[in-house]
Amino acid sequence: MLNFLDVPTSLSLASLEVGHHLYWQIGNLKIHGQVFIVSWIVIGILVTASLLATQNAQRVPKGIQNLMEYALEFVRNLTRDQIGEKEYRPWVPFVGTLFLFIFVSNWSGALVPWKLIRLPEGELAAPTNDINTTVALALLVSLAYFYAGFSKKGLGYFAKYVQPTPILLPIAILEDFTKPLSLSFRLFGNILADELVVAVLVLLVPLFVPLPVMLLGLFTSAIQALVFATLAAAYIHEALEGHGDEHHE
User: Fold this and answer.
1) Which spans are transmembrane here (predicted)?
2) What Rg value do the Cα atoms of the chain yield, rounded?
């Protein structure tokens, strides 16, 4: 989101652009404006759906209430399977927020014709096709499992970094950051590649050929959201259980 890591590459194919952004200058910060715009739209969709689902809650759910309750149950089961029955409940909101934000962001890039909206520079797209967004999500995961381990074990949590030998300290520290960062690059690469493929096919063969690719993109987008949320919960479980324990990946 903030411009701490930018992609300097540039590709121009008709109306297709990569690496061009609408920048907002706020003090000394340069922010990708189009990422914030679509992120706010995604957040607005999620907040609106939540309000509609809880406004007149029925004992027998239907419509939007049924959809949101299904999503909650899905996230609850996912978190319980990864973290465990005893400790999963406090982490359902975090894992659920990650999953729903990434899921809706990915699908917004696949379903909404953002390119029809003209900007002074750059173009609107899924927030997750910007490396700044996915790295920010990865850093949140890192902070979450540091917090999980420290809140349960106190300073004893950091003993894992010198076990079985202090020589492995640099590798242990690096591992804690490379795992979620690898998730962020995987998510970014898949979403960006999917949007580029669809955009190129639409330009070359605008009618029927892109449709199967778009359907495949929807499936891939959902899988990427599931993988990110699942591994985030698995890393939290690892922090809660200990460095050497097995965890679900």
Assistant:
1) 31-53, 91-111, 131-150, 187-209, 215-236
2) 20
What is d(CA 223, CA 229) in angstroms, rounded to the nearest whole number?
A: 10
**Token couple for 154:** 């106190």
- Listed residue (128, 113, 148) closest to 224, CA to CA: 128
**Would you say 177 and 235 are in contact if contact means Cβ atoms under 8 Å apart?**
no
- Cα(198)–Cα(214) distance, rounded to whole angstroms? 7
- Angle in degrees, CA 141, 236, 164, rounded to 5: 110
Determine the Cα–Cα distance for residues 208 and 200; give it in Å rounded to an integer.
13
Q: Which residues contact 17 (CB under 8 A, 6 or more apart)?
A: 10, 11, 122, 123
6-20, 71-85, 158-172, 220-234: segment of lowest average pLDDT: 6-20
Q: What is the pTM of this model?
A: 0.79
Domain residue limits, the chain: 11-241
Q: What is the pLDDT of residues 27-84, one digit of tens each?
A: 787 777 788 888 999 999 999 999 988 887 777 777 888 888 899 999 999 999 999 8
On the CB side of 73, CA atoms within 13 Å amount to 6
